[in-house]
Amino acid sequence: MTLAPERTGAAGAAVETPTGAPGPAIGRSVDRVDGLAKTTGTARFSAEYPIPGITHAVLVHAPIARGRIRSIDTAQAEAHPGVVLVLTHRNAPKLTPPPTRMNPMDLSTMAAGSTIAFLNTDEVHVDGQPVAAVVAESLEAAQYAASLVRVDYDTIVPTSDFDAELGNATPVRSMPVMPPTGGKRGDARAAYARSAVTVDLSFSTPQHNHNALEPHATTAEWDGDKLTVYEGCQNIDWTQKFLAKRFGIPAGDVHVVAKFVGGGFGGKSKVWAATLIACMAAKLAQRPVRLALTREGVYRTVGGRTPTRQRVAIGASTSGHLEALIHEVTSRKGRVGGQADQIVACSLDLYDAAAILAEQRIVELDLMPNTAMRAPGEAQGSFAVESAVDELAVVLGLDPVDLRLRNQPGERSPVHGTRYSHRRLAQTLERGRDLFGWDDRPATGTRDGKDLVGWGVAAAIHPSWEFVANVQLTVDPSGGATLACAFHEMGMGTATVVGQLVADCLGVPLERVTAIYGDSELPLGPGAGGSGQTASLAASIERACRAMRKRLDKLAEGLGMPDGSDPADVLTRAGQGPLTVEVGADAGPRATWGQVRFLSKMVMDSRRWMKAATGAHFCEVRVDADTGELRVTRWTSVFDVGRVVNPKTTHSQLRGGIVMGLGLAMGEETLIDTRTARIMNPSLAEYHVPVHADVPHLDVHTLDDPDPTMPLGVLGAGEVGIVGVGAAIANAVRHATGRRVTDLPITLDRII
Ligand code: MOS
User: Fold this and answer.
1) In angstroms, what CA-CA distances link 299 with 88, 272, 296, 482?
2) Are 486 and 524 in contact (CB under 8 A)?
3) Is the CB of residue 597 less than 8 Å from the CB of residue 334?
4) Which atom of ligand 1 is nearest to the CA of 530?
5) Atom of ligand 1 nearest to the CA of 266
6) In this predicted structure, what is the pLDDT of residue 648?
7) Which of 265, 268, 534 has the most ligand 1 atoms within 8 A of CB, as the residue to mutate?
8) Separation between Cα atoms, residue 709 and residue 422, nearest integer Å
9) Ligand 1 within 6 A of 266 CB?
10) Do the two domains 11-31+469-585 and 46-157+216-292 of this chain adopt the same fold?
11) What integer pLDDT is reported at residue 19 of this predicted model?
């Protein structure tokens, strides 16, 4: 590992290391340990494992959204040179049916992307559903042969018009341990009716789809009844248990390898059709199979972000105190699966309104079930609530930062009543205001040549979680320390940060630490989701290092050496081989109990504390007065993510969140043809994600103030960056043009 020369971080950020000294590794901008492998192309992704005898699979997608296969003719495809077999519902291995709902007590249910029994049914439930797969000796043969498969369907008219179905929405109930989908404090409707000043706005956000740099890919190989699957996933444990359940084999017989993941963003937390089909094909062909989705294939078979329709109504006093905050949301899922994102969550914790009402309803459509996508819920919900708060500032003639500061909660969460473990949102607003130079903001936007210039602000909040993480720590007499855990490196720097945590908690130089990860044969790791991977790992690493130090110090004592002596010296002097410590041990049959224990701890903890990362975005936009073209020209964000283990990787994560927020604000929109329930723009040419030219320099700061209740003070940084970005831009557009855009994306036709 390479150490950057500077050590950043606030004075209070010292880590309690075994020697009592501040950790030399934590808090440093260490370069990513996997950086060289990634940039030189030697990092191996799921579709790149050189397996002898590999075959290639290509999916045949249904061009209808609802119906039944009447007939399927595979003869021509099978006759094509190089074709090994064509997999359909007639010959595919029969799997255990998919679970119909997620049950946190049964981890084999957590990775079900939908309830469709792929290739085990003649029913079609969504447009693009794979109805066959061609396996061939070459990718080209498989691709061509896939075009030769003829399928006839009996069709049923699908329902996919979200707006037309709003009247059929049903209420969503909050689930224990999950983020809230509703909440209530006092009588918000009555308080709203009494309020001196009111704002009542309706918002819409479109469906989004996942566009990770690495499209989903699977390489599957059977050895008898044992399955190895190379799958760049975000949750090795869920993937392993889900595949084992579906194929009816013990979890230990499924080996999941996910060494590198080319971006996930929530889209790789579940097991989608192609992964299952690759495993089915490999079983039938008795050959290893590679199935790499095309970009369009990802749109057709992987869930995206739910669209929303939202209403935010705020009642306030003339002095700008919130009397009532009402947030009503409708989202959608699929008829065959999906989830209720926590879209109202922001409204429960951003402001201390005297009365709060947050409600969510959901409709089911004949579309791919929605799934998690970076800050699922908060990203959409914050757009609405933070736009409405901004509009209230306009109506009141108050500075929008002042209005926000005036309404910050005290020690307790207004709705949950739980105590904030660490609430620094006001500080992020104040610091951002100074850094951006917000005090120079004119009352209305300015004109510079043909540009209308405006400044906007929005706040961000995202809950902080901790999951099960089992780790194995080994120190050896030659000086190496190895941390093994099935965690995930999706490009955010976790492998690097793990090294830093081990180095300081154990009291060894960073150069001597190695992290082994991305493999189900390692101790069970946390999922890379919910912004919780680093904190989860930190908890177990700290415990493992403490236990290891205890053993080392005991050895040292017998040798007359001081506590905290170098592990290599202690082991060498003691004439010992490597020492290993395991933490967690929630593997095998005991895994269920581990989960029970962990979930109960989580429930108890959530009754006691409200833990969240927070932040504030400040931006400048320019709108072409003639064409309405929108450009973001300046950006400053300040976040409280608790302790910052590595400023370089943390700030990069936060910038990534903001960039994704620029996409949400200005470009991303999945277009559905509601006559056919088919996605019309399944490509990067027609679905617009930000490119470099769209992104200004993103000036990102962190408070680096450890949370007292989270492991090593880490709150998590994966998702909070995207929260509030849509509103910050919409608010700047309002300032620049006087126009309140309430529908995303903010395209020029909506500004002019
Ligand atoms: Mo995430 S949306 O928890 O990868």
Assistant:
1) 21, 11, 5, 39
2) yes
3) no
4) 3
5) 4
6) 97
7) 265
8) 8
9) yes
10) no
11) 40
CA of 117 relative to ligand 1 center, distance in Å? 25
pLDDT at 585: 53
Please give the distance, rounded to the nearest whole angstrom, from the Cα atom of residue 366 to the centre of ligand 1: 24
376 lines ligand 1 (CB under 6 A): yes
In angstroms, what is the span from residue 373 Cα to ligand 1's centroid? 6
CA distance 173 to 648: 39
| ipTM confidence score | 0.97
**pLDDT for res 26:** 95
Q: In this structure, which CATH number among 3.60.10.10, 3.30.1060.10, 3.30.470.20, 3.30.365.10 belongs to the domain 164-205+304-465+608-751?
A: 3.30.365.10
Domain range summary for the chain, segments of one domain joined by +: 11-31+469-585, 46-157+216-292, 164-205+304-465+608-751
- The answer to whether 466 is a known catalytic residue is no
Q: Which helix (H) or strand (E) holds 571?
A: helix 567-574
Which residues 6+ apart lie within 8 Å of 536 measured at CB? 465, 466, 467, 468, 469, 526, 711
Q: The tokens of 752 are what? A: 């002019």
Give me the amino acid identity at 172.
Answer: V
**Low-confidence spans in the chain with pLDDT less than 70:** 1-22, 585-595
- Supply 319's token pair: 């002095």
Say which CATH class 46-157+216-292 falls into.
Answer: alpha beta
What is the Å distance from ligand 1's center to 534 Cα?
Answer: 13
Cα(565)–Cα(711) distance, integer angstroms:
25
Atom of ligand 1 at shortest distance to CA of 375?
Answer: 2
pLDDT digits 0-9 by tens, 301-328: 999 999 999 999 999 999 999 999 999 9
Best residue among 110, 489, 719 to mutate for probing ligand 1's pocket (most ligand atoms within 8 Å of CB) is 719
265 CA distance to ligand 1 centroid (A)?
A: 5
For 375-395, the pLDDT digits (tens) are 999 999 999 999 999 999 999
Q: Is 373 in the pocket of ligand 1 (CB under 6 A)?
A: yes
- Give the global pTM: 0.95
Sign of the four-CA dihedral 443, 448, 449, 450: negative
